[in-house]
Amino acid sequence: MKKEERLVHKVKRLLKRLGCPRWLHRFGPKTYEFLDHLQALLLRAFCRLSYRRVKQLFDLLGMKCPSKSALQYTSAKLNSGFWQKVLRITSGNPYLVAIDSTGLSRTNPSYHYLKRIDGGMPKVPIKLSVAFDTMKKKYCAAKIRVRPAHDIKDAKSLIKKASPKMIVADKAYDANWLHEYCKSRNIKAVIPIRRWGKPKHKNFSIRMQAAKCFKIRIYHRRELVESGNSSNKRKYGSSVSSKKVRTIRTEVYARLACHNLFSYLARLLGQSPHRQNLYKTPLPSEQHA
Fold first, then answer.
1. pTM of the entire predicted model
2. Closest listed residue to residue 55, CA positions, set 45, 65, 47
3. Domain range annotation of the chain
4. CA 214 to CA 223: how far, in whole Å?
5. Contact predicate 254/47, CB 8 Å
6. pLDDT at 288 over 60
7. What would the CATH number be for the domain defined by 81-242?
């Protein structure tokens, strides 16, 4: 019962650590606290509901919840700096971070309808770049773009916000300036080098020196960020229902925050047993011994 109580008070402790005010605006009517707004937005992302359905659900449960328009206003008001602090607090201080990017669609069209009208496949305009802690399996930092961009453009921002000791990434992040940036911050970068033929001049750049110290065992930790993105899409969907950029940002960040906050609950109700309990039950040979 104590573990369930901790899960209930997670949002309260999060706001206390963030140092957020009790009320959303000091000149407001003081009807709903900032806690009421934030828990409604997190529940909307966790249950994949609309603003109107969240309001109806809270009313049915007898809980305080702002109106639909108030939730939309709060969703547009929360900036990326607030959500970066949420990810930072809920993930802790990472050691080894995997960097990768994925795509999210703005809508979820019916493929039967697309086949009927001979339409093409919908494009993926929303790009999500994340820094994933491979030890705790939580998101440390994220960057959202509504237009297509190269993966390496958000690498410097993710590393600065996550502040790890070591990073792993794929060949898309192989650049000499990124290795120089990691070396200036005492961060070890494990990135495979792109083979574009033999170099004309044997210049010992930082990326060439890092290629000599490349360890395939550490690089395989990058697969965990792909598993995290797959888990996030399976739980919360691969498309967003918001239309504006600010509300899209809040919806995607709220999904990542739910992943960090309720990761213990997912392990508690998961399919695989805990590692410590694997060998508690005696084997058949041991029972007869």
1. 0.83
2. 65
3. 2-77, 81-242
4. 16
5. no
6. no
7. 3.30.420
